[in-house]
Amino acid sequence: MERMLRTAETLYGPYRWGKYEVLVLPPSFPYGGMENPRLTFATPTAIAGDRSLVALIAHEMAHSWSGNLVTNATWRDFWLNEGFTTYIERRIVEEVFGKDLRAMEDVVQLQGLRKELTQLPKGDQALHLDLKDRDPDDAMTAVAYEKGARFLMALEQAFGRERFDTFLRGYFDHFAFQSITTADFESYLQEKLFALDPQAAKKVSTHAWVHGANLPTIDPPPQSERLDHAAQLAKDWAGGKVDAKALQGQSWVTLEWVHFLRSLPEKVPVAKLKELDDAHELTARKNAEVAQAWLLKTIANDYEPAQERLEGFLQSIGRRKYIVPLYEALLKTPGGRERARAIYEKARPHYHPIATETLDRLVLGK
User: Fold this and answer.
1) Distances from the Cα of 111 to the Cαs of 72, 117, 142, 294, in angstroms?
2) CA distances from 168 to 57, 86, 176, 209 (A)
3) Cα–Cα distances in Å, from 213 out to 106, 126, 228, 305?
4) SS3 content of the chain, % helix, strand, coil (to 5)
5) Which residues form the catalytic set?
6) Would you list the DSSP string of 140-156?
7) pLDDT tens across 75-131, in order?
8) Which residues are within 8 A (CB) of 126 and not within 5 positions of it... i.e. 6 or more apart?
9) 219: confidence class by pLDDT, cuts 50, 70, 90
């Protein structure tokens, strides 16, 4: 945490809140974190035993500049909090943990954004949403986080990192302890960056990024040789070209395992899953990211040895990011609704009301 905080200060100016601490909440906490000034609330799923999931802390810490120091004035401007914070998180990860891990984060999160965009109506694909007569939670999608961060990455690429860092530091100083709108940001961007280099400004369409649907072209797209290798191994293992013991997964980081599992075919024979499980003890994994990716695969293929672990996972973790997709996957299987209801009946008393509001509709049809 100390290294991450020093990195952020070097990039964006002094930390202005005096003290920074993290309070790990009970497992029922439905989110990854909450960026209260001076005291981040964090999910216990961030504790993996090997410090592999600390990007979550980097994200909440980054809110000390974007979100707490400069705050969105309305929920339509939510992306000013989360897009900026996601961008800063990646910069912290790159400086503290290296370019390889940053590249993997970029690839995996962009894949998630592209998938979510296919499921959202056009109006909800813009950063600046129309939320009239709507629940503000409608703004809390990957668009605010990842599309917002991608917009800032496009600006960094067009103007150069050094100039863009100077711009951002000035932005935080100029709007410190204020709540601002998207229009405020666009005006400041035009005056303090675009007007200084009109040629570079032509490379980025603010309107397309902020007010348009879909995702503007990202050139070049993020790449990770390590994730490409993991995806190829998934293909080779599924096709019988590589033995599970030869995968050398003990040296992989979390994102490599997640990408490997997501790259497997939808249907995998149970015997093959057992081979993989026996070689790498995936059912017993405590890392929530890897566990969820594995459990999603076991649900889709009715892998009985993981059923007890699935029930235990759903009854001991309340973070919506993990549990909602697992219930959704269960509901798609034969007899899955009955099983999902049985698990949910036991787990529901331990969930936060925000989680039960979602799951009551999903599992119980309320």
Assistant:
1) 26, 10, 11, 18
2) 21, 14, 12, 18
3) 20, 5, 29, 43
4) 65, 5, 30
5) 60, 145
6) -SHIIIIIHHHHHHHHH
7) 999 999 999 999 999 999 999 999 999 999 999 999 999 999 999 999 999 999 998
8) 143, 210, 211, 212, 213
9) confident
